[in-house]
Structure formats: structure tokens, C-alpha cells
Amino acid sequence: MDDDEALSRLKADHADREALAAALPTPGTDTPLARELADNARRRIQLTGRQFPKPVSQRVLTVANQKGGVGKTTTTVNVAAALAQSGLTILVIDLDPQGNASTALGIDHHAEVPSIYDVLVDGTPLLDVVQPCTTIEKLFCAPATIDLAGAEIELVSLVARESRLQKAIAAAAETGHEFDYILIDCPPSLGLLTVNAMVAASEVFIPIQCEYYALEGLSQLLKNIDLVKRHLNPTLHVSTILLTMYDGRTRLSAQVADEVREHFPEEVLRTTVPRSVRVSEAPSFGETVMTYDPASSGALAYLEAAGEIADRGAAGRT
């Protein structure tokens, strides 16, 4: 198939999806549940099958927030899964000793498994510990094991302790194995693991829960990002902010969203991720919500957010 024929087929597929979307019931009719179902079906038709554009160059994003419970790991694995499902090659680096990102991707991470701990402390090549995700093609993970809990102490005495992950990623790129996106899931604290992640990345991706305490945590996080930028990584900047656990029924969610958008108009994604039982259930089955329930509101929101991130990367807006 030549390029013109492939392009024509893609355009035809897109036109078919648009036609199906237009034929669905208009939101605003019948019951609230019917409206939600119709809206979700329309969004799914428009998004399914779309191939996301490759970024201008490899993007390394540290997914960070010093406040726990904001959907940081959930956002990491679901955005990664959505990007991979849409044709991009993705690596998730699990830097949290709890290993929740590894669990959500169905990656084995018991104590004897080669992990990111071996990369940071023993200098093992990064690609030697990377495992493929069995449920999604083009999605890979460097898992975390419980050994990582002691890495903070062990790293203190090592040479260039803040840049060991950066050097490991650079060495992996030199072998010719290129990932379009590398997403680093950090623990909710500013220790040496998080510092390594921020030195290794040029971008910080911040999920923010739509509650008041999240704003207080954001202020402290920005101060710490500025510290790392001034002393260790001049290229580091906040490129992406995603509003999570959004509840449209509450005034507080809307107020938090408005305040964040006012202060970060360029960084905040248009998409908000609603509270979703399906998103919470998926990790218990060793899956992301993208495969557990791809038609759910949470999966659609993460797919839309991933599309925005990919479009920004292709346009050089990072």
C-alpha cells in the first residue's frame, strides 16, 4: 500500500467515525444516564483508531506531585497505555518503592526481579530490566521492587548520585532502542529518587486532584522544581498539568480547576479526568483502565488527555 492510498484510507475511516458520531442521540435528551452513555459513545467513536503523531524528539516526563492520592500513578500508567494503543512506543519507569505502576501494567516485580534499583545502585543497563506489558503492544516498564526502599540511603555515598537515571536513559538511547515517550512515576516526596527523575527529564507532568489541599501541595512542588532547575537541570520545566478526580457536581472542583487554569493557562490540558470506579478497579486485575473498560468515562478522558499531549509533542510545544 503506497502513502497516498494509506492516507485515503485513514481519511475514510475518520469520516466514517464522524458520521457514526453524528448519528448518535444528542446529549441533553432523556435521562442523565442516557446522556452520559450517548456522550461517551460519541467520544469513543471519534477517538478510537486514531494514530497519535510522534514527537519531534524523544520526550522524558517526570510525573510528580508531593501530595499523595492525587492520581499520579494512575495517570502515569493510563496515559502511557493510551499513547501506546495509539501507535507510539512508551517506557514507564517505576521509581516508587511501592511498585504500583508495575502492578497496574501487569509486570512482575517481586524481590528477585531485575529492577530500576539495579540500574540506579549497581549500574545495570536500563534495557536489561525493561519488561514488555503483555496486554498492550509497544508499552514497556522498568519495574520497581521493594529493594528500591533502601536506595535513598545507598545512593547517598555514590558518585553523581543525582544523575544516575539520566545517564542510564542516555546509555539506552545510544544502543538504538528509542522510545517516543518515557514517563517516570515518582514517590510522593522529594528524596534522591525524585531528584534523579527530575534530573533525567526535561519536563514535569503534574496531576492535580480537584481539591483545596492540592493547591497547597502544588505551591511547594513548584519551589522544589525551581531548586532542581537552578542547581542540577536548567532545562527542567512544568510542561503539562492534568486535573484529576474532577466532580462536576461540586462547586469546589470547578473553583480549583478555574484557579489552576488561571495560573497555568498554557500548561493545563483541556481534558479533566472524572472520578471513576472503573479507573480504581483496573489495577486489581493487573490492567490499566484502557484495557479493563475502554468505554468508561475514565478511559475516554485519559485517551483524550494523551491525544493532547501527543499533539503538543508533534508541534514542538513541550
Label this structure with key terms:
318 residues; alpha/beta; 8 strands; 47% helix
In terms of topology, how is this protein built?
Layout: H1 3-23, H2 32-47, E1 59-63, H3 72-85, E2 90-94, H4 100-104, H5 116-122, E3 131-132, E4 139-142, H6 151-155, H7 164-174, E5 181-185, H8 192-200, E6 203-209, H9 212-231, E7 237-246, H10 251-263, E8 268-274, H11 277-281, H12 289-292, H13 297-314
Parallel strand pairs: 1-5, 1-6, 2-4, 2-5, 6-7, 7-8
Antiparallel strand pairs: 3-4
Helix pairs in contact: 1-2, 2-13, 3-13, 7-8
Could you please describe the fold and organization of this structure?
The two termini are 34 Å apart. 42% of the residues are buried. An 8-stranded mixed β-sheet has the order 3-4-2-5-1-6-7-8, sandwiched between helices. It has helices at residues 3-23, 32-47, 72-85, 100-104, 116-122, 151-155, 164-174, 192-200, 212-231, 251-263, 277-281, 289-292, 297-314; strands at 59-63, 90-94, 131-132, 139-142, 181-185, 203-209, 237-246, 268-274. The protein is of the alpha/beta class and 318 residues long. The protein is built from 13 helices and 8 strands. Helix content is 47%, strand content 14%.
